[in-house]
Write a structure and sequence with these properties.
GO terms for molecular function: ligase activity; zinc ion binding. With about 500 residues, this protein is α+β, with helices and mostly antiparallel strands. It has helices at about 5-15, 35-45, 70-80, 120-125, 135-190, 195-245, 250-260, 275-295; strands at about 25-30, 35, 50, 60, 65, 110, 115-120, 135, 320, 330, 370, 380-385, 390-400, 415-420, 425-430, 435, 445-450, 455-460, 465-470, 480-490.
């Protein structure tokens, strides 16, 4: 293969398969392929089934990134070839300099106070004897070090802006997808009652159109701003790189006249106001759907899909007392748990949820909870639960995972979507986290609404028909979902 052909192929071999640009901080993975570190880390940010190679799709159970220093050196050669530079020993050609015009001696040192090149005779003169005088190579190295540090800062800022722009575009596409979902939901809900609710439907669609325009406007403004800032940084980087390639004399003259420009701060990221608007819009739609189902159920307000839940005593915690007909459950402080008594029974009743405490929603097998007998695998279901004002309580649904057998409610084999009251504070509870809810008036009856196909779990004040909380859409993965109840503390009863 001749030299020109090799030079044409080398940049292609030194390019990342993901971003198609020269490798930046190249690393190799388990299958031997190479990528930019930032590119492969973004690909593996949310792995679903192992860590797959984007090129050959070979997957590994663990993430492995190994720096490739040899490839980094080859990459530098490729960059130089692409710029048409000669590849030799790497030693820079020294410029031909004129000597001191006064003494005809070579200019070997640099006076930092006066910013002037001096010969050996000028250095010993009275005018420069008290000044800081350094060899020219040392001063050049010092100033180049300062520029390299600023170059690195500017490049880091540029990379951050590139990431911000990518995240901004991805987020706004997600917003647009969510608005499209809401559009379809609105149209389907108003299909049967179009004549009587047509005005309300037009109002909601108009609001949704305003939200889409807001998203498009914010996206255009943010992407334009980030693009301009990236362009400015690219120009500044190019100017500094050109300065570094100038002869020492010219370089020092420029540095003396201009110095280093301080980098401007990065523009702040926009607040997620659009996300809040979409969430608020979705909550309004959930409440509307529940109202329509209640209306379609008849004049007594019984919603479609309403079921009667019967508690399963075999799944109850030892300190819970389930009524013989399975219609209620209460906390019994006199009932001692078996063995060492794990769970909330070992702590004072009423302790609030917090890290390191056995509060509602804590570790496996510790929750004083009970399941409903019948599981749900399809359709829409809802049930009303009457709660006592005393003690702590929580209610919702639990998804049975494969192999659990359903023996232990609240264990690691059950995934929870619930809300409840503890020490006067309302919480949204899952198997992994607790989300504090805004202060609300304690409801007398809570309605749990489950839409299996949509993966939607929502909670309403059954008397006021107002939404309390709705979880983001989830996937129940075709598994059985059971009603789930928790009571804890003196006087607590559901």
């Amino acid at each position: 293969m001749d030299a020109p052909s090799a030079r044409d192929e080398l940049p292609g071999e030194a390019s990342c398969p993901i971003c198609l640009e020269y490798f930046r901080d190249p690393v190799s993975i388990h299958c031997g392929h190479h990528f930019c570190r930032s590119c492969i880390e973004r690909c593996w940010e949310w792995p679903t089934a192992g860590f797959a190679c984007p090129r050959c799709r070979d997957a590994a159970p663990e993430r492995s990134l190994r720096p490739s220093r040899e490839l980094a050196r080859v990459l530098e050669i490729a960059r130089r070839l692409s710029r048409g530079e000669a590849v030799g020993t790497g030693e820079e050609e020294e410029e031909e300099e004129e000597g001191c015009q006064r003494h005809r001696e070579p200019l070997e040192v640099f006076c930092k106070e006066d910013g002037a090149l001096l010969c050996a005779i000028c250095r010993e003169s009275r005018a420069h004897r008290a000044h800081t005088v350094l060899p020219v190579p040392e001063v050049v190295q010092e100033y180049q070090g300062q520029i390299q540090a600023q170059l690195q800062t500017l490049k880091d800022d540029r990379d951050k802006l590139l990431e911000f722009r990518e995240a901004e575009m991805r987020r706004n596409w997600e917003y647009l997808e969510k608005t499209e979902v809401e559009r379809q939901r609105i149209l389907s809900q108003f299909q049967g009652l179009r004549l009587s609710l047509e005005e309300h439907s037009r109002h909601l669609l108009a609001r949704l159109g305003d939200l889409e325009r807001d998203i498009g406007k914010v996206q255009e403004e943010n992407v334009t701003s980030l693009t301009k800032e990236i362009s400015r940084l690219d120009t500044h980087i190019q100017e500094l790189e050109e300065k570094c390639r100038q002869p020492a004399r010219t370089f020092l003259q420029v540095m003396r006249d201009n110095g280093l420009e301080q980098p401007s701060p990065l523009p702040p990221l926009p607040l997620p106001e659009l996300e809040k608007k979409i969430l608020h819009f979705r909550e309004e739609n959930i409440l509307l759907e529940e109202t329509l189902r209640s209306f379609q159920g008849g004049i007594h307000g019984t919603p479609s899909g309403a079921v009667t839940v019967t508690l399963d005593p075999s799944t109850a915690h030892p300190q819970l007392l389930v009524a013989p007909d399975g219609s209620s459950v209460s906390w019994e402080s006199a009932r001692e748990p078996p063995g060492d008594g794990p769970g909330p029974g070992t702590d004072p009743p009423g302790d609030g949820p917090g890290p390191g405490t056995d509060a509602p929603g804590d570790g496996p097998g510790t929750d004083p909870s009970v399941l409903g007998r019948e599981g749900v695998t399809a359709g829409r279901r809802c049930w009303d639960v009457q709660v006592a004002p005393a003690g702590s309580w929580a209610l919702g649904v639990a998804r049975e995972t494969p192999g659990s057998g359903g023996e232990t409610p609240g264990s690691a084999e059950w995934e929870l979507w619930s809300m409840g009251l503890c020490q006067g504070q309302f919480w949204a509870l899952t198997s992994l986290e607790r989300i504090p809810l805004f202060p609300i008036h304690a409801p007398r009856r809570v309605r749990v609404a489950l839409d299996y196909e949509r993966g939607q779990v929502a909670f309403f004040d059954a008397d006021k028909r107002s939404l309390i909380f709705a979880f983001p859409a989830a996937s129940f993965k075709g598994q059985s979902v059971h009603p789930w109840f928790l009571v804890w503390g003196e006087g607590s009863r559901i």
